[in-house]
Design a protein that fits this description.
By secondary structure, this protein is an alpha/beta fold. The protein is built from 8 helices and 9 strands. It folds into 2 domains: about 80 residues, no CATH class; about 100 residues, Glutaredoxin. Helix 3 packs across helix 4. The radius of gyration is 19 Å and the shape is elongated. The termini are far apart.
């Protein structure tokens, strides 16, 4: 049915048609029960074994890529976009990680000093160009939503490289991204990177 729908759209005579074919869509809500929960939890661990076109992607990032693709001038005709092409669009699009009541953005030295001076906080270093980060940030968001008593901060490492370097220097932990710290009195009580960052692991290492 999906192929038939694509065929109808492609043959509709529209000047420019973009067909997006994501593999696994990662959502904040578990839509289809236990199977969906297990798939979203386990797929990022095995995805590196598959060709890149079958990697997972956040639904928010797919939407951002689709919007950027629509807003930029492309060639007429029909194009089919898989995961690598979507990632390429995301690398061109402006970042959209903003402060929310749940995640506070670190965009200047004063805020970084506030984080490192807190009695307790979670600091997450996010890369807007890293596919792993697009998955991990949802884990951090889930943690922050269920632990409002912990201030959770996000630092974009590409846009604020100087602040990212300052974190590595002041905490004496080599840089990585994505990377997360559980801080107490400005000291890292636990830190992790890449696939080790989950809402569950954050909860487990609260001090």
């Amino acid at each position: 049915m999906k192929a038939e729908a694509e065929g109808v759209v492609a043959g509709a005579g529209i000047a420019r048609t973009s067909l997006f074919r994501p593999s696994l869509l990662v959502t904040r809500e578990i839509r289809y029960g236990l199977q969906d929960r297990l798939t979203q939890a386990l797929f990022p661990l095995v995805a590196p074994l598959f060709p890149r076109r079958y990697h997972q992607i956040r639904v928010e990032d797919l939407g951002r890529a689709m919007r950027w693709n629509a807003e930029t001038c492309g060639s007429d005709g029909v194009e089919v976009l898989h995961y690598p092409e979507v990632v390429a669009l995301l690398q061109q699009a402006p970042p959209e990680v903003e402060s929310t009541p749940t995640l506070r953005e670190v965009a200047d030295r004063a805020t970084l000093d506030e984080v490192l001076g807190s009695s307790r906080a979670v600091l997450y270093k996010h890369s807007t160009r890293c596919p792993v980060s697009t998955v991990v940030i949802d884990e951090v968001f889930r943690f922050a939503e269920t632990h409002p008593d912990w201030k959770t901060y996000v630092l974009q490492v590409i846009e604020h490289r100087d602040l990212s370097d300052a974190v590595a220097e002041r905490l004496d932990v080599p840089h990585a991204s994505p990377q997360v710290f559980v801080l107490k009195e400005g000291r890292p009580m636990w830190h992790a990177s890449h696939g080790s960052i989950t809402a569950q692991s954050l909860r487990r290492h609260l001090v």
